[in-house]
Each structure stands twice: as structure tokens, then as C-alpha cells.
């Protein structure tokens, strides 16, 4: 109990203000999970879940105490979503680890054009549908930005579980909106971490793109069906 009390109350003095320790630790776990994801390691999922648990308590600021500056229901809700999708991703990568080879859990691939259109449509429609919900719950404005980061995080995490290389670009779209939102809401540790994520996700995209090209080269050209050539 003493450890939990310390964990919930501990802050790190920075200049004339302070950072919530749980927010810093949660983002460190998140960064470790992202690094593991770039390397396609199964351990990325459980490490990410630990970070999600910590950040959940942070973004529910008014529920877990006054240390957090504002309540962001979208940011809090996406931590629950992260954990749910992470369980799926953990299982999927664990199952595919032996098939991928070279110590990796999955072979990156590109989503089809149909899937890409569906992802864009889900991003826009989900943001529009969740904005009034988060607004009614009293989320920090601009509420649409909170809804955008929630939907983008959901789609990016699902895309990572499926092994779609495009999931890194979805994270970039999340960071473009999420960084200003976190700064204005007073979550400086998360804002700086998301700013770093923006550059990191671009690097991750190119790493996965190279891996998908190598996988395609090893697999060779797709066979042509009899009678299909003209």
C-alpha cells in the first residue's frame, strides 16, 4: 500500500512546476513498446500494457487525484482500448513468431487499397461520432482532437497487430493532432514523448517498408493463373 501511495503521489520537480511520475513511467514503457514493435518482438505488447495501465490513471485526472492537470476521456479511453487490442496483437504475434523467422514475430505487409479506404473512412467517421460523446463527458477542448487521437490510436494498434506497414503513418496523423492537445492540456511529459514519437514513427515506417520489400523478394513473384495472360 505504501508503494502504491507513493506511486500515485510522486512528482518530478521541473523548473517551477512538476511532472507526474506515473505519466513519465507510462511513456517510458510506451517508448520501450514502440521500440519492440519496430523490431517485431512479442514482448512489445505486454510492456505496452504496463504503460497503458499507468497512463490510464493519469488521464483520469479528476478521478485519481488533483496531480493531473485535466481529464481527457479520449486519452483515458484509448488506454483501455490499447490493452484490449494489445491482447489480440500479443496472441497474433505469438502465433506467427515461428512462421516469420529470424527472431521476428510477424512479416510486414501492405494493406490492400480497399483496406486503406476503410481505414480512412473509419478515422473520419469515428472522430465525428465520438466528438459529441467526449464533449458530453466533459473532455478537454478541442474535443474533436481528443476523438481523433482515440480513433487513430485504435486503428494504428490494430494495424500493428495485423502487420500492415501503413500503421506507422496512422501514428504520424495521431501525433500531429495529439501533441498540441497534450501541451495545451498540461500533459507536458506525454506531449514531449509524442513529439519524439512523431519522428520515431517515420523511422519505423521505413524500417517496416524495407522488411516488407525483403519478404516480397524472398517470396518471389506471384504465380500467374493459367489463361490469365494476354
**Cα-atom Rg, whole angstroms?**
19 Å
Helicity, as a percent range: over 70%
| Mean of all residue-level pLDDT scores | 81
Largest sheet: 2 strands, antiparallel
Q: Give the number of DSSP strands.
A: 2
User: Which regions contain 5 or more consecutive residues with pLDDT less than 50?
Assistant: 222-230
Class by alpha and beta content: mainly alpha
Report the end-to-end length measured between terminal Cα atoms.
74 Å
Read across the widest sheet, the strand sequence of neighbours is 1-2
Structure description:
Mean pLDDT is 81; it is low at 222-230. Helix 5 runs antiparallel to helix 6 (143-162) and helix 6 (143-162) packs antiparallel against helix 7. It contains eight helices and two strands. The protein has a two-stranded antiparallel ribbon. The protein is mainly α and 230 residues long. Helix content is 72%, strand content 3%. The protein has helices at residues 2-9, 21-38, 44-59, 73-100, 113-136, 143-162, 167-185, 188-219, and strands spanning 11-14, 17-20.
Amino acid at each position: 500500500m505504501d508503494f502504491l501511495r507513493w506511486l500515485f503521489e510522486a512528482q518530478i520537480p521541473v523548473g517551477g512546476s512538476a511532472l507526474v511520475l506515473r505519466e513519465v513511467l507510462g511513456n517510458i514503457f510506451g517508448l520501450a513498446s514502440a521500440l519492440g514493435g519496430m523490431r517485431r518482438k512479442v514482448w512489445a505488447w505486454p510492456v505496452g500494457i504496463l504503460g497503458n495501465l499507468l497512463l490510464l490513471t493519469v488521464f483520469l485526472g479528476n478521478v485519481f487525484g488533483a496531480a493531473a492537470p485535466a481529464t481527457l476521456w479520449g486519452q483515458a479511453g484509448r488506454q483501455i482500448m490499447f490493452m484490449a487490442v494489445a491482447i489480440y496483437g500479443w496472441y497474433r504475434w505469438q502465433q506467427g513468431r515461428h512462421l516469420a523467422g529470424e527472431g521476428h514475430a510477424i512479416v510486414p505487409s501492405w494493406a490492400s487499397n480497399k483496406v486503406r479506404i476503410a481505414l480512412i473512412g473509419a478515422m473520419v467517421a469515428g472522430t465525428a461520432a465520438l466528438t459529441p460523446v467526449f464533449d458530453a463527458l466533459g473532455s478537454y477542448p478541442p474535443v474533436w482532437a481528443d476523438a481523433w487521437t482515440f480513433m487513430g490510436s485504435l486503428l494504428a494498434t490494430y494495424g500493428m497487430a495485423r502487420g500492415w506497414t501503413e500503421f506507422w503513418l496512422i501514428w504520424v496523423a495521431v501525433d500531429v493532432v495529439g501533441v498540441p492537445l497534450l501541451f495545451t492540456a498540461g500533459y507536458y511529459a506525454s506531449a514531449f514523448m509524442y513529439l519524439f514519437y512523431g519522428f520515431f514513427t517515420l523511422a519505423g515506417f521505413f524500417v517496416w517498408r524495407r522488411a516488407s520489400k525483403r519478404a516480397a523478394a524472398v517470396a518471389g513473384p506471384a504465380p500467374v493463373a493459367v489463361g490469365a495472360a494476354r
